[in-house]
Automatic annotation (TrEMBL):
It comes from Methylomusa anaerophila. Residues 7-223 form the Alanine racemase N-terminal domain. It comes from the Bacteria. One of its GO terms (cellular component) is cytosol. The lineage of its organism: Bacteria, Bacillati, Bacillota, Negativicutes, Selenomonadales. Pfam families: Ala_racemase_N (PF01168). This is Alanine racemase. Keywords: Isomerase, Pyridoxal phosphate.
Amino acid sequence: MSPLLDINLDKIRYNTAQVREKCRQQGIAVLGVTKGFSAMPQIVSAMLAGGADGLADSRMENIIELRNSGFTQPITLLRIPELSDVENVVRYADISVNSEITVMEALAETAQKTEKSHQVILMVDVGDLREGILKEHVLETAKQISRLKGVRLLGLGTNMGCFGGVLPSTDNLGLLVELGFRIENQLGFKLEVISGGGTSTLLLVENRKVPAGINQLRIGEGILLGTDTTNQRKISWLWDDAFVLSAEVIELKSKPSVPMGDIGRDAFGNVPEFVDIGIRKRAILALGKQDVYIEGIVPVDGNLKILGASSDHLIVDVTDTEQDIKVGDNISFQLTYSGLVSASHSRYVAKKFREVQ
């Protein structure tokens, strides 16, 4: 039996509804980010059932599949469009985030040729140093966009926590709002969206510290896992076990804790290190690095310890558990965001959906 990713759609729906309600109270719309689970339609439907105001993904392949699956909701492309792919962007995505005027000119030209209109969110770098233009270039870039035919400047956005680890704050989000005001005053039209980041901004929402004017968040991790990695916390009012990965025990034996013989490199080129703690009871599971990002899974039973993994095998120390683990049993794991991304995308991991009640 393949490793299994058990997906509770009802908990995803609940989490979406909880996030949307807290945000709605402060005038903030919620986009359900679908990239973390490869945009599987069952999960997308659960997000929408929970009240997500729109969808967002960083991969055009996912967006195309969503359209082909019949989803008609507004979809935002979260990764800056590739110049070589502007035709698909205009055809399948309603909105895209942008920072390069060359790309926006190509989007405009394509939109005119196909008699479509495409909306863009100008990304501003407020400190995390991933995508976005610097604040001193925002007004001039907005002017350039306003002169293009075929695209419309929908608003401003920013990203935090994904590269530099910079946390959202009233100061950096306030700067985004202020830049929006400047554009409106200089260019004489209203920006519809000021997009203030993702799950890491939920802490400000909880504490009611989001600056007035921020009216959109793009939420993936919080809805899916009930966690906020950037702020190093579990979100107490959300389910954290909507996704559970399990794999079968294929060997169970007591062995020394240190290998015998000269130590070279493992199958992935690393030199392993071991501490001698005596004979330990070890389970080998039918799960490996080809299946999931091992550093992104955590045993549900806190008395189990992952010792390591090869391409096809996961070695777990089961000495201290109270469970009577046998060959053929399954061991369960919760996932971090990186673990979820890899398990969702893996064709070696089966998926089981619990239907929304």
